[in-house]
Amino acid sequence: MKAVTVKNLTKKFGDLKAVDSISFDIEKGEIFGLLGPNGAGKTTTISMLATMKNPTSGKALIFGHDILKSQDGVRKSIGIVFQDQSLDEELTAWENMDFHGRLYRIDKETRNERTEELLKLVGLFERKDDLVKTFSGGMRRRLEIARGLLHRPKVLFLDEPTLGLDPQTRNYLWEYIEKLNQDYKISIIITTHYMEEADRLCDRIGIIDKGKIVAMDTPENLKSKIGGDIITIKSPDYREKLSSNRFWWSDKQEFSNGFFTITLSNAEEHLTEIISQLTKLKVTITSVSMHRPTLEDVFLHYTGRRIRDEEADFKDRMRMTMHKRPGRH
Ligand SMILES: Nc1ncnc2c1ncn2[C@@H]1O[C@H](COP(=O)(O)OP(=O)(O)OP(=O)(O)O)[C@@H](O)[C@H]1O
């Protein structure tokens, strides 16, 4: 049986199709990523799968439980860590876990056993008696993940698990996520707008834009489908200086957000010539870089746009500011 089956799932808010007829399957033990910019429809998708929002149309099953007809069955099968923190800051780590266990009617002995095991898994056992309000952002996120696993879900939803965390904490969290996937063999659905996160963690990725899945495969296959190497030239006036010019060196050229991107094989052999041609045409070149295709290139290839990192970073900063406000739970 598939862990998750999604068929033509759609969610409309008024005229807006936030999720537009998406379909995918997830295997048992697989880490599946939904990668896309802010507003792409990632949170809405997992809210429907977690029975928190009803779809406008379409169907989804979690280990055979229909998200509309068997909501209890779905809820028992899933653990959720959403973007907004939902821990009680005035309770200790242990108390937060215990409270959650009671909600799921887990008996005391099992609760204690699992709480100890999970707090050890996420490296918080030593801090079990400390109030959550003394925890850093990364520790809180780890505690939320441990809590989401307490009732032994078969599928774990992680909505932007490392949003707003610094790179080092993000790395630690990735290690914990990998470890729990290996130790518990649970299926994990991650939403993220961080390409590196999707690349590192996910067995397969669905690239989502404006409510639609535009590509779906393993990170490696997605990148290799791009073909060749990528040369990125930052230039404010490329478009105006070259207008409709196309060069022999590649039929794959994109211009987006002030960056001119050329895809071709053996890029290093052609780089000097490309730069000299552009210089002759008086194109202003601010910087040049050359790399193997990344998931950002994959996104650009399928959508003609970049994942708007600036906007995402702005959102991260806003969230951090909000979380630092005293008294926020
Ligand atoms: N309750 C709602 N009412 C109206 N529009 C909504 C609602 N929830 C989401 N949307 C809209 O649906 C679209 C998809 O939002 P969603 O939150 O699923 O995106 P996302 O990919 O998760 O991005 P983010 O990480 O910013 O949350 C956006 O245009 C958003 O404004």
TrEMBL record:
Signal sequence, start to end: none
GO molecular function, one term: ATP binding
Record's GO cellular component terms: plasma membrane
Chief place where the protein resides: membrane
Source species of the chain: Methanomicrobium antiquum
ABC transporter domain sequence ranges: 4-235
Localization, UniProt: Cell membrane
Annotated keywords: ATP-binding, Cell membrane, Membrane, Nucleotide-binding, Translocase, Transport
Gene Ontology process terms (BP): daunorubicin transport; doxorubicin transport
Membrane topology summary: Peripheral membrane protein
Protein name: ATP-binding cassette domain-containing protein
Family: Belongs to the ABC transporter superfamily. Drug exporter-1 (DrugE1) (TC 3.A.1.105) family.
Superkingdom classification of source: Archaea
